[in-house]
Amino acid sequence: xxxxxxxxxxxxxxxxxxxxxxxxxxxxxxxxxxxxxxxxxxxxxxxxxxxxxxxxxxxxxxxxxxxxxxxxxxxxxxxxxxxxxxxxxxxxxxxxxxxxxxxxxxxxxxxxxxxxxxxxxxxxxxxxxxxxx
Length: 133
Hints:
By secondary structure, this protein is mostly helical. The chain has helices spanning 4-23, 27-52, 58-88, 118-131. Helix 1 (4-23) packs antiparallel against helix 2 and helix 2 (27-52) packs antiparallel against helix 3 (58-88).
């Protein structure tokens, strides 16, 4: 077996995975593209393990670790995607800017964060005066 054939297949798999991560907007397709990249790495690890004929089979051991990490990543990633879909009814990666559900409006021009505006201060003063006996 030539070393070039599985290495070229792994390079193609990794390239498709990189394209999927950069071009897709759906979170599930992005997770699938990450899995393609991890499988390309696994193919390279096993290929070079067979090529070097290591007695300890280090490439195959690292492949098993990579498979375990990929399974954990998919489990956690799908749980996050399902929670986001449940809250927002959308899993578009470009629209997920913040993790909070409600975004606070930006402060008015020239105001310092945490300070009150004159109109807010007057309204609060009137509410206090009305509530006082």
